[in-house]
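Why this split exists: single-chain examples teach little about how molecules sit against one another. For that reason, every record in the complexes split bundles all components of an assembly together and asks for one structure covering all of them. Below is a record exactly as it appears in the raw files.
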Amino acid sequence: MLDLNLFENHGIKPSITRIKIYEYLLNHDHPTVDEIYQELKPELPTLSKTTVYNVLSLFHEKALVSTLVLNHKEQRYEINHQPHTHFECIRCGNVYDMPYVQIDYRSIAQDGFEYVNHDFVVKGVCATCKQE
Amino acid sequence: MLDLNLFENHGIKPSITRIKIYEYLLNHDHPTVDEIYQELKPELPTLSKTTVYNVLSLFHEKALVSTLVLNHKEQRYEINHQPHTHFECIRCGNVYDMPYVQIDYRSIAQDGFEYVNHDFVVKGVCATCKQE
DNA sequence: GTCCTTGCAAAGCGTTTGCACAGAA
DNA sequence: TTCTGTGCAAACGCTTTGCAAGGAC
């Protein structure tokens, strides 16, 4: 299921906890620390939130995942793949992936600013909440 | 200096604290609560952070300011005017305003999602930090 | 009098830190 | 042995809440 070479390529030693957390990220879009913790707790009964934080910050440091800052309080994490855009519903708080919006970075470079990364979050009302 | 009709139009009763905080927002880009508190403390010696939070959430509720969520922990606030883009330096943490990036929202509407607002944050290294 | 603004103190909550235990190499 | 992963408990920092005092009306 999970290719361990990916860990090796990023300089991460595998462990059951790390593998489970990574698999969870593969199957769930931008979860919070608490979501990961609550869902993995049954499989890994001795899991602690500290460990989830530790593993995620290791993944982040090794450029395996990126963090996502939204209106809500908690940090969210997602696996690094092609950039895309997020939609956050202001009613239910759910976060959806959206097609990537292409940006022109030339003006940024002109000002002597170096582009590294970007967060683009569209806020509004999701289709489900709109029907209510 | 400050047009009190603006407050009235938004259903906000003026007070010295509210006026000072609003003026601070007029003259400073996206400050944090602590920055506002520290800077206004000399003028308003009995000011408390709770009051800064109260006033800002009133302003936000009355659509006078919007909130801005960045990588750093604290919430930032800015006066509502034409939308623009923010650049956050990953070295010094400073936040700069940037030219507005125009977005095409048609695809969002197609999915039954209603656009309300957006946050666009570019991360990188600012011109000052780049020289070091 | 009532209503509203203000602000102290405490609680809340996501996150980080200190540290120690246990397993791997 | 040393190094590393894990996890409890406490600390930390930003924000919110409870509540009471004082002012506006």
